Amino acid sequence: MKSLIVTNTDADHVRLVYLIKELLSRDEEVHLMCAGSAGEEALRKIYGEKLSVYEFPVDTRRFSNFKMARYAMFFLTAKRKIKETIEEVKPDVVYAYNLLSGYPTMKALKGKEIKFFFDMTDFFHDIFRLKMRMDKDSLVINKLRKMEKEVVNNADIVFTVSEAFKDAIVEFSGKKKENIIAIHEGANPEVFKSGEKDKEIVTRYNLKDKIVVIFTGGIEKHDNLDMVVEAGKELYEQNKNILFLIVGDGGYLPTIKEKVKETELQDAFIFTGWVPFRLIHTYLSVADIAILVYSDSMITRYVGTTKLYEYLASGIPVVVHDLPGTREVLENGEYGLLFKCEDKEDFKGKLNRLIEDGGLRNEMSVKGRILIVNKYNVVGQAKKMVEVMASI
Questions:
Q1: What is the pTM of this model?
Q2: Which residues of the chain have pLDDT under 50?
Q3: Domain at 2-186+377-391, CATH homologous superfamily
Q4: Which residues pair with 52 in a beta bridge?
Q5: Which CATH superfamily is domain 199-374 in?
Q6: Which of 142, 155, 322, 390 has the highest CB neighbour count under 10 A?
């Protein structure tokens, strides 16, 4: 099977990395189209010399500047580039990751007898609406919604990240349920492990004898760290050993830092800035509790989110918003404490329960780790995806 993988982002997203690795492990011929700045040297370190790389001229990575303008430029140039690559490669199957890649890929495949797999991990039209602060019924958003629906209905198979999102896509598009396959994201338990705390990080941030509550990843308004600061103030007044370790960066980070300063919580919060993915496991090693506190939106409602799986694989007990995607992974609270979304008092109560109960932390640490090993090992998830691609 000759595969063409198309993504407008960097090619180091966990889901893509393990998909490509699984294809290559089967001695399949794999070709990758990705963001123009990705650089073949970095990709070679991940995938080796067996991978053929084709770079888009427009950089639409997660943290590229003028991102929305770049999206527009990508749309104007991507179809031609993808079509040229398809004609050169002559793949048996084409896989596209989310709308920005999926729509021009769908157009480039028109009239060709090539199987098309569309991986839909979010509703792009709603991400764009929130980012640009547009009305949900505006002309632009309606157009993006229509494009997204068109890609879904033209794909042979749609992959998605949860059963909850699968149901939402059926309702959104009218596509037959049997042609949408939920394959959750996951973590590699050989990379993310429970064990000794990283001594250098403990020393650098003076974490000895602290109860470390960690958050990792991008920091935007929907990550709802405002509520963490508000709840943290009350918890810190009760227990000076609590420390919130915020690992990441994003557009909303300056607002959160200012809020911490205004509430005089500088001793309770540490902001590390962005940390390369290859080092995230070392930061997770120092954590006693991990949190996810999303607001309820179409962006957040249906995802388990990669960081949740990494927390669990690392043996960190979690306090997580109760939304369909996370509820599904944690099996209604069996593998982590769920709090009512955007309810500060419920969040504070659940977090305090873990802070005060070391036995419960240990119990949930073991259970969460087992869940990833047995059910959400990303290597196994990639195998499922490749098996579907090979069977159609």
A1: 0.91
A2: 37, 63-64
A3: Glycogen Phosphorylase B; (3.40.50.2000)
A4: 31
A5: Glycogen Phosphorylase B; (3.40.50.2000)
A6: 155
